[in-house]
Amino acid sequence: MSEAHLVIAGAGGHARSLVSLLRANKLEPKAIVDAHAAPGEMIMGIAVVTSINHLNLEDEINTILAIGDNALRKTKANDLKAQCYTLPLTHPSSFIDETALLGCASQIFAGAYVGPLAEVGQFAIINTHAVIEHEASVGAFSHVAVGAKLLGRTRIGESCFIGAGAVIKDGRSICDGVTVGANSFVNKSIDEPGVYVGSPARKLNR
């Protein structure tokens, strides 16, 4: 695929991390597309435009989603469908075991570890220095934040957010739609969606 075809969707903070990830793989996006772009806006030397119509590209565009919010990322992926870049993106400094499975359009950032027989779902984000240990799985559209650790045989459902520095004890499972707060410790399986914080993690009542 030509580098000229790569376009990033979303100009929030995650876009900066994604530009760095792409450049580490010798890829340079043509532009960043965001409906709220300011005139003349640039991010790390890349033009930010409000629509792909401003790019005047005749060939197919492959869009990479720079959207940290799980629900928004899922909505955008469904909207774009065939336009999305489908290969997993892995930083050269990450470690991906040869038996691990990476879903389409997943993003594995610098220093992350994905261990033996681990699975990462489609459009999931494994952020900087996160650890996905042996036989653990991360559901589609989930986000494992900076430095979070999923110990062996853990199961994380779809559209979950595991906060920075959080630890999920080995063998535990977390259902779809759960947020685990930063630096929390999950020592029991979670079977009800919601926000869980603390050590041990407990559900916030809202």
UniProtKB/TrEMBL annotation:
Belongs to the transferase hexapeptide repeat family. Pfam families: Hexapep, PglD_N. CDD domains: LbH_AT_putative (cd03360). The record marks E135 as: Increases basicity of active site His. InterPro entries: AcTrfase_PglD-like, Hexapep, PglD_N, Trans_hexapeptide_repeat, Trimer_LpxA-like_sf. Acetyl-CoA binds at H143. The active site is at H134 (proton acceptor). This is PglD N-terminal domain-containing protein. Residues 6-79 form the PglD N-terminal domain. It comes from Alteromonas confluentis. Substrate binds at G68.
